[in-house]
Amino acid sequence: MTSTSRPRVTIADVAREAQTSTASVSYALNGRPGVSLDTRARVLAVAARLGWSPASAARSLAGAGSGTIGLVLARDPRDLAVEPFYMQFIAGVEATLAPRSMGLLLEVAPTAVAEVEAIRRWHMSRRVDGVLLTDVIADDPRVELVKEIGAPAVVVGDPSEAAGLTSLWTDDAAATQQAVEHLVSLGHRRITRFAAPGRYAYTVIRDAAFESASQAVGIEHDIVRTDLSLDSGADAARTVLSVSRPPSGLLFDNDVMAVAALTAAHDLGLSVPGDVSIVAWDDSLLCQLVTPSLTALGHDVLALGAHAARRLLDVIDGVEPAAFQDATPTLRVRASTGPAPVET
Amino acid sequence: MTSTSRPRVTIADVAREAQTSTASVSYALNGRPGVSLDTRARVLAVAARLGWSPASAARSLAGAGSGTIGLVLARDPRDLAVEPFYMQFIAGVEATLAPRSMGLLLEVAPTAVAEVEAIRRWHMSRRVDGVLLTDVIADDPRVELVKEIGAPAVVVGDPSEAAGLTSLWTDDAAATQQAVEHLVSLGHRRITRFAAPGRYAYTVIRDAAFESASQAVGIEHDIVRTDLSLDSGADAARTVLSVSRPPSGLLFDNDVMAVAALTAAHDLGLSVPGDVSIVAWDDSLLCQLVTPSLTALGHDVLALGAHAARRLLDVIDGVEPAAFQDATPTLRVRASTGPAPVET
DNA sequence: GCCACGAACTTAAGCGCTTAAGCTTACGGG
DNA sequence: CCCGTAAGCTTAAGCGCTTAAGTTCGTGGC
After folding, report:
1. Are residues B229 and B181 in the same domain?
2. Which structural domain range is residue B306 located in?
3. What is the CATH number of the domain that holds A23?
4. Same domain for A293 and A210?
5. Taking CA atoms, what residue in A is nearest to B7?
6. B268: in domain
7. Looking at residue B112, what is its pLDDT?
8. Considering its fold, how many domains does chain B have in total?
9. Is B54 in CB contact (< 8 Å) with chain A?
10. Using one digit for the tens of pLDDT, what is the confidence trace for A307-318?
């Protein structure tokens, strides 16, 4: 007994029931002037009674926006499960969107080409009013695309990569400095940074901040390149810790590698933080649950997402592009960092 | 020098350039008969050259679907970061959708009411062609809504809660039995299950399977109710392990609680798996990274999402409702389970 | 050589909104 | 008492597609 498709209720139905024209219904619903209080109330009551929502297709065809913003996740699907970042970010974006009855259109694009295509298609077919760009790389093709086609966009990343688009950045340099100073204050004189691939804008920024913070206090420092994966972190940590005079402070560009290093240190018979101290970027539940718990640089990703969405809505409304700064990540000190071992 | 909004290219532009009518362009684009090979090729070439994508609003107004399916995540935003499930599931859904150029509309609804409203609004305004329902509970209001308004939907959960809608289920009973048998084969004779709230359909199913599997082999067994949170798991584990003759096998309904139990056991001076063996549901990176790594019941969530989306597209295409079974979770044995301690 | 037929193509009628423009009506100032 | 004005409301013209219905034309059967 499938309930056969009930008749669609349209603006005309509401107009008829409320004894007025469709134009008045439209004006009333959108809170525009030109309708008496009486009529407005009557329209809203009828609309509620009939459970009418304007067909978004008709609305956007007629000139209103689509009421949707787009987000493309350019990561391998398998990696997404590992990264709590996106889910948090999405939740934040939604927190801004939901009260305005706007929607979030998602696409998981396996390749950069697919990602650019998705954005182009979305914009050309007017499915979205604007897009959010994360994980921006140097000379990002997406940035060029949105500039070319004139799609409203917000770059979540450093302004240097945003090519004049509105951007939202966090001060990774300051955060990096914090982490270095934390280790130095514990007496560490030899530290190594395990960095993300150089194509990410933030890598370059963190690298530079790491260099200058280390030089400022005159300690030995080194940077090892990784690909952020578990294995890459474990391998790099093992290599670095196996030399004759290994560093006593390790700084990782994400949480997964830091956890891998924990295991690597354990396997090499080194104690954390007795022999080696470990700091992670991207604080997460993982950092809290491992033993010892990890000292980490973290920030409120939920707030970041909400902030990014707000800026995008501004851009859609025609606000001029600008660079905005979000809160600086803070160091959450836990059990994985401690006084440097005494030099033998 | 903002490039002023370039002229929108429409089907009429393509028709003019290709020296044909808009109808032919439409037929050509949608691969319908009634167009010669020659014309079809010409149209597609022009469309490509002009970079034209049909306006989705116009298309869906004219009767085609919206080319979008909806997914509402009914969890507290803070919890979402903890649950790798959703991100994986979404990635799987996308794997099905992307090749068909379909979109995924997301909403994070903090409350059940907001969730039902979101679905109703989506369907009424025809923003989505169908919806995916996860985390289904007994007498779920969403299931009732979807039946009432006749929205195409797929329930990811047990058919018993799907009220005749198409559903996609995994055999949690068989998986539970596997876990119990694994512990029994290691000599455990007293096991406790730390269960999710009873409102979830799967809880009831797992409870029953746990009971019958335990009774079948005649071992002592007990079920403790939790709320799946870290704290709730830690508290429950502490309580259960503090009695005079504690169970030697613990089975948790998610990974987070199992990790919490690891810490609780450690704090009580119990070794894992020497004194107590631990098994988790929801295998994740977390299970692999903690020490000792956790034996867990896991399944391919990416595949589940892809499967669910496929079924939903079928339902949208008018295929009759049915219950489909996805792969049964498998037990991934790691370091947290071992031979039962010798009874003193 | 004529006609019926089907393939290829075009015309035009919506789909359900928004909004500019036109129309009423009531009202107050000159 | 007349008219300009403005508030309230309606009419109707799109927005860019899809598709039923109509038109044209080449082809083959008789």
Report:
1. yes
2. 68-170+301-327
3. 1.10.260.40
4. yes
5. A149
6. yes
7. 86
8. 3
9. yes
10. 999 999 999 999
Q: How far is A30 from chain B (nearest CA, A)?
A: 15
**Which of A250, A233, A239 has its CA nearest to residue A188?**
A250
Give the CA distances from residue B94 to residues A50, A77, A106, B73, B104, in Å, rounded to whole numbers and listed in that order. 34, 9, 8, 15, 7
| Tally of CB atoms within 10 A around B209 | 21
Q: pLDDT digit string (tens) for B244-268?
A: 999 999 999 999 999 999 999 999 9
Residues of B whose CB is below 8 A from A102: none
Asked if residue B339 belongs to a domain, the reply is: no
| pLDDT confidence of residue B6 | 63
Q: How far is the CA of B23 from the C1' of D19 (A)?
A: 8
Candidate from A61, A86, A127 with C-beta closest to B61: A61
**Mean pLDDT value across residues A184-192:** 98
- Tell me the pLDDT band of B337, cut-offs 50, 70 and 90: very high
> Residue B81: pLDDT above 80?
no
**Residue B91 and residue B15 in one domain:** no
Residue type, A313: L
Taking the CA atoms of chain B, what radius of gyration do you get in angstroms? Answer: 26
Residues A212 and A322 in one domain: no
Residues A191 and A228 in one domain: yes
Q: How far apart are CA B284 and CA B297, in angstroms?
A: 10
Confidence of residue B1 (pLDDT cuts 50, 70, 90): very low
Residue B333 lies in a domain: no
B327 touches chain A (CB under 8 A): no
pTM: 0.91
Can you tell me the distance from the alpha carbon of A264 to that of B47, in angstroms, rounded to the nearest whole number? Answer: 55
- pLDDT, residue A2, reads 42
- Domain of residue A313, CATH code: 3.40.50.2300
Indicate whether A134 and A164 sit together in one domain.
yes
- Contact residues on chain A for B79, CB-CB shorter than 8 A: none
Tell me the per-residue pLDDT of A261-291, one tens digit each, with 9 for 90 and over. 999 999 999 999 999 999 999 998 889 988 8
Judge if B323 and B310 occupy the same domain.
yes
For a pLDDT cut of 70, what percent of chain A falls above it? 98
Residue A101 and residue A139 share a domain: yes
Under 8 Å between Cβ of B113 and B120: no
Closest CA to A327 of A300, A296, A295: A300
